[in-house]
Amino acid sequence: MEIFIQQIVNGLVLGSMYALVALGYTMVYGIVNLINFAHGDVMMVGALTAYSLFRLLAHIAPGLPGWLTVIVATAGAMVVCGLLNYMIERIAYRRLRNAPKLAPLVTAIGMSLLLETLAMIIWGRDYKVFPSLLPSKIINIHGVVITPVQIMILVLTTVLLVGLTLLIHRTKLGRAMRATAENPRVAGLMGVNPNMVISAAFVIGAMLAAIAGVMWYANFSTASFYMGFTPGLKAFTAAVLGGIGNLTGAMLGGVLLGVIEVLGAGYIGTLTGGVFGSNYQDIFAFIVLILVLTLRPQGLLGERVADRA
C-alpha cells in the first residue's frame, strides 16, 4: 500500500505539470480550433530562460535567497514565453485562420522544429543542471516520500488552476474568451476584439507553460533544447483525454495521464514478468491517446458536436 500511495503522489506531481501545458493547448483550440504543436517547446524555452536568469542573478545578486531567485527567474521566463507565443500567433498563425486545416498544422510543426533549433544554437546541446536553490530535504510521511519541490508543484498548480478558472468564469476577459470561442464574428459585433482575445489566450497559455517548464526543470534537475517534445505530446494527449477545448477536462486529463503513466511504469515489470521495465513508461500515454480517439474522440468531458455544412 505504501508503494501504491507513493506512485499516486508521483503521478499527481507529473500530472500537474502535464495539466498546465495541456491548458495552453485547450485554450487555443477552444477559440481558434488550432492545435499548437509548438507549445511544448515554449515550455522548453521557459526552462532554459530560467537557467539563464539563474546564472545572471548569481552574478549580479549573489546574496539573493534561493526561493526569491526562483521566483524572479520564473517571472522572467513567463514574460519571455508570453512575448514569444504572442509573436508566434501574430506572425505564423493569424494569417492562416481561414486557411485549410492542414496549413496551420504544418506551420505548428515547423515552428516547433524552429524553436528547438534556435534553442540548441543559443543554449547548446548540453543538459543544464538545476542549481541548489530550493530545499532538498526529503520528507517521509508514514513511508511515503515527497520533496519540498514536489509539494511546491502540487500547491502552485492547484492555485494556478483555481485562478485560471476564476479568470475564465468571473472576469470580462474570460467572458470575451468564451464568446469568441462560441462565435468570433458575433462576438466582434458585440464589441469584443477577437484578435486581442486570441492573443491573450496564447500569452496566458505560454505563461502557464513557462511555469510548467521551470517546475519540470526543478523536479528532474535537468533541462535541454529537446526537453519539450515528449511532454508536449503527452500534454496534448491529456487535453484530448479530458476533452480538448474544455479547461476542466484539460486539468482532469493531465492529472489522470500522470497517474496512469506512473502506475504503469511502476507495475509494468511485475505485470509482464520482467520482460518490460520502467523505461517503457512513455507507451502508456500513447496507448491512452489511441484508446480515447477510438472509443471516445470527444474526450471525458467533451461534447460530441455534429459537423456543420
Automatic annotation (TrEMBL):
Transmembrane segments: 12-35, 67-88, 100-123, 143-168, 197-218, 283-301
Family matches, as InterPro entries: ABC_transp_permease, BCAA_transport_permease
Bilayer disposition of the protein: Multi-pass membrane protein
Compartments it resides in: Cell membrane
BP GO terms, sorted: D-alanine transmembrane transport; L-alanine transport; L-isoleucine import across plasma membrane
Annotated keywords: Amino-acid transport, Cell inner membrane, Cell membrane, Membrane, Transmembrane, Transmembrane helix, Transport
Protein name per UniProt: High-affinity branched-chain amino acid transport system permease protein LivH
Pfam families: BPD_transp_2
One annotated Gene Ontology cellular component of this protein: plasma membrane
PANTHER family documented for this protein: BRANCHED-CHAIN AMINO ACID TRANSPORT SYSTEM PERMEASE PROTEIN LIVH, HIGH-AFFINITY BRANCHED-CHAIN AMINO ACID TRANSPORT SYSTEM PERMEASE PROTEIN LIVH
A GO MF term: L-phenylalanine transmembrane transporter activity
Gene transcribed to yield this protein: livH_28
Family: Belongs to the binding-protein-dependent transport system permease family. LivHM subfamily.
Segments forming a coiled coil: none
Organism: mine drainage metagenome
